[in-house]
Amino acid sequence: MVPESSKKNFGLIGYPVEHSLSPIIHSTLGAETDVDLSYPLYCIEKDDLGSFIKDSYDLGINGFNVTVPYKQEVMQYLCDIDEEAKAIGAVNTLVRTENGYKGYNTDMPGVMEAMAEEGIVIKGSNVVVIGAGGAARAIVMGVINEGPAKLMILNRTKEKGAELASEYGYEGAIIAGYDDDFVAMMDEVSGGKKWIAIQTTSVGMYPKVVFSPVTNKEFYTRIDKAYDIIFNPAETLFMKKVREAGGEAYNGLKMLAYQGCRSYEYWTGKKITADMKKKVCAALIK
Ligand code: ATR
After folding, report:
1. What is the three-class DSSP state of 281?
2. Residue 161 CA: which ligand 1 atom is closest?
3. Which residues are known catalytic residues?
4. Which of 85, 76, 82, 23 shows the shortest CA–CA distance to 54?
5. Measured distance CA(131)–CA(146) in Å, rounded
6. Ligand 1, closest atom to CA 135?
């Protein structure tokens, strides 16, 4: 039996993890909610992941965030997985229970909350998701749940976009690769309405800031609002092109902040207020 201590021990598991901003989120929330906590970064080799989880549980660690590349890998080491996380097929939050850690996905509600706050309304809109990797999984699920008018997945490897849509049992997604005339495909089904674009790849992230996954200039003229999950730089080339074409564009800072706030709520049972969320965002920008 591990003795109860007032100090709470969380942390981030990934490979690599050293540049993570999550410690800023959780130290801010700890101070705001009066919780004495630690949040170290654990850079773990794949072969050590299972024993690390077991040893952490035995030591009484209260919870973890999980990042790339272990959001799927970690699932086999958990005693239970939340239904939504199961459907997404990825877990980013581990919560200590009596029998082991239970897995949750806060990326999906985090990004949906961030987009809603920026005035990005998915329900009934034409939505193009760029990318079909790990980050896109949670986002595509969130978008499908909201009920878009049209959903296009635009990805370098077209098959991966098709796989993602069919895995979620979503019929009618428009799947395109960069070699397709994807702007014509958008126009064909748009009903004259502009599109919401969600950029989920790492293309354009610091230090490779001179890249955008979409080079076709026409594409940007079809975009009304865009969300880029990248937050460094604050304005990616993708965002800049959207703005130059007359659209609105937002970076992924709030998505990062809000997934962290939701993990913290799971761990501590404390409600994170709008004011606390603002403080987290301010701390992340510093
Ligand atoms: P993550 O798990 O962080 O989302 P990932 O699984 O490697 O990372 O997926 C990254 C996404 O970015 C994928 O959709 C990938 O396209 P592919 O499916 O074709 O691999 C996309 N991506 C990565 N580098 C890219 C590049 N240079 N140009 C265009 N797309 C890229």
Report:
1. helix
2. 18
3. 71
4. 76
5. 19
6. 4
Choice from 74, 140, 202, 231 to test ligand 1 binding pocket (greatest atom count within 8 A of CB): 202
pLDDT of 96 strictly over 80: yes
| Ligand 1 pocket residues where CB is under 6 Å | 68, 131-135, 155-157, 160, 201-203, 213
Centroid of ligand 1 to alpha carbon of 45 (angstroms): 22
Confidence check: pLDDT of 221 > 60: yes
| Gap from CA of 9 to ligand 1 centroid (Å) | 33
Ligand 1 centre and the CA of 5: distance in Å? 42
Whether 249 and 224 have beta carbons less than 8 Å apart is answered as: no
Mean model confidence pLDDT for the chain: 96
Q: Flag whether the pTM goes above 0.90.
A: yes
For residue 5, pLDDT beyond 80: no
Alpha carbon 19 to chain centroid, angstroms: 17
Strand (E) positions, the chain?
8-9, 12-14, 37-38, 41-43, 63-66, 80-81, 93-96, 101-104, 126-130, 150-154, 174-176, 195-199, 223-228, 248-250
Cα–ligand 1 centroid distance for 62 (angstroms): 32
Contact indicator for 280, 261 with CB cutoff of 8 Å: yes
Contact assessment for residue 11 and residue 270, using Cβ atoms and an 8 Å cutoff: no
Percentage of the chain lying above the pLDDT 70 cut: 98
What is the identity of the amino acid at 12?
A: L
Of all protein residues, the one whose alpha carbon is nearest to atom 18 of ligand 1 is: 157
Please tell me the distance from the alpha carbon of residue 284 to that of residue 271, in angstroms, as a whole number. Answer: 20
